[in-house]
Design brief:
This protein is of the alpha+beta class. It is built from 9 helices and 15 strands. Strand 5, helix 2 and strand 6 form a beta-alpha-beta unit.
Length: 403
């Protein structure tokens, strides 16, 4: 047997890759597992990134002199590269005085969608895929590489931290909330305005450009067809007159949020649930639909394929801005209900006060683990030094293209 690592060929590999994907659950083995349906497009999760690559591991079995060799795809990996903020420094005016913080950028690579067929694990295939992908990262000038995994997924954590040289870096929280059959109320003291992509870009670059992991190509994200809009929550009497006036004199409290349509990229399904759990979930939906005015919590059809909306770019200002975030959350829930999504999700830093302010179900939410690796030692430390050794900031910017 020989394992060959090569680039994914959509004309010949799609069906075989889908078979491997369907055999793999996300996260650690257990009673319940999360499965991903990529809707027939194996590169859908990296397709919208500035630069991306997908590799497959193909096992070639020789049949001897009288038989032809057979090939089988036993694993795959995706990767993408972009430029992000890794820190900040203060700019100076002509007199040498510090004026304002400006972002320090780095070229960052991201590994996602590493899969190895269950019957071909513990054979070093995952390690070969990672090393080949890292070579592509280095060839294209990436300074750092990072991955996201479940902290409880011991095989994944072991592969990257013990064999590939990654270090545990950040522990953001993935907050998940079901979409009910009833609508959520929105405060009468808040006005929600939908921004144009241009106005949203101006706001994000002004307020979030020094946030860790903020993508330099934020304009590409905001103009993507999967972006359902950026929404600004303002006090009831405040009149939106464009980004220039807002940025020069914003209200005391405000909040912003964008919505990414993951439903058109992939669908998820929880498998392994008992009939009792499925029956209980169905009962909650029936009661919710029958009596929507009671606003009873219900569990959507997560035991069959369901879609989700990703909330990203959440932030704001003011002593009461978390109340405005909750108004945006209610708006996002109602939008997801209209689009027939099963859940809405977001990801925030473990240090972010939004972690406590954003409504979510603990049973559906979890702590993520981001691990990072420096790909070369000949890079300049710049203004932030070695990013691996930096302390976490209050917030991170989670790119919806990689969720």
């Amino acid at each position: 047997m020989v394992v060959i690592i090569r680039e994914y060929n959509p004309k010949t590999d799609s069906d075989r890759v889908e078979q491997v994907e369907n055999s793999c659950e996300v996260g650690p083995n257990g009673e319940l597992s999360l499965y991903t349906d990529l809707l027939g497009d194996p590169i859908c999760r990296v397709r919208n990134s500035p630069a991306y690559l997908m590799l497959v591991a193909e096992m070639v079995v020789s049949g001897g002199d009288e038989a032809d060799g057979t090939t089988e795809i036993v694993g795959m990996i995706r990767g993408c590269i972009k430029t992000v903020t890794c820190g900040s420094k203060f700019s100076r005016n002509k007199f040498g005085d510090c004026v304002k913080p400006v972002p320090v950028l780095t070229k960052l690579a991201y590994i996602l969608g590493l899969r190895v067929s269950p019957i071909h694990r513990r054979m070093g295939i995952g390690l070969k895929l990672v090393r080949r992908m890292e070579q592509w990262f280095e060839d294209n000038g990436a300074e750092y590489s990072y991955i996201a995994t479940d902290d409880a997924n011991e095989p994944s954590v072991s592969l990257f931290t013990e064999k590939c040289g990654y270090a545990k870096f950040r522990n953001p929280s993935v907050l998940v909330h079901p979409v009910f059959a009833h609508r959520l109320p929105i405060s009468n003291h808040v006005t929600i305005v939908k921004l144009t992509p241009f106005d949203a870009e101006s706001l994000y670059r002004n307020h979030f450009s020094t946030t860790e992991f903020f993508p330099r190509d934020i304009d590409a994200i905001l103009n993507n067809h999967l972006n359902l809009g950026t929404f600004l929550a303002l006090p009831k009497r405040y009149i939106w007159e464009g980004p220039d006036k807002f940025l020069s004199g914003p209200p005391k409290n405000w909040a912003v949020m964008s919505v990414w349509n993951c439903k058109d990229v992939f669908k998820l399904e929880v498998k392994g649930a008992s009939k009792l759990r499925k029956g209980f979930a169905k009962t909650t939906r029936v009661v919710d639909r029958a009596f929507p005015f009671l606003r009873l919590p219900s569990l959507p059809k997560i035991f069959s394929p369901f879609g989700l909306h990703m909330l990203y770019g959440l932030g704001g200002s003011g002593p009461l801005y978390t109340r405005f975030i909750k108004a945006l959350f209610g708006f996002a829930h109602n939008l997801a209900k209209e689009c027939k999504c099963g859940v809405i999700a977001t990801e925030v830093s473990s240090e972010d006060p939004l972690k406590l302010a954003i409504p979510h179900w603990k049973v559906l939410s979890f702590t993520d683990l981001w691990c990072i690796k420096r790909l070369g030692e000949d890079y300049s430390d710049g203004s932030v030094g070695d990013w691996r050794k930096s302390q976490p900031g209050l917030s991170i910017f989670v790119d919806p293209r990689e969720f």
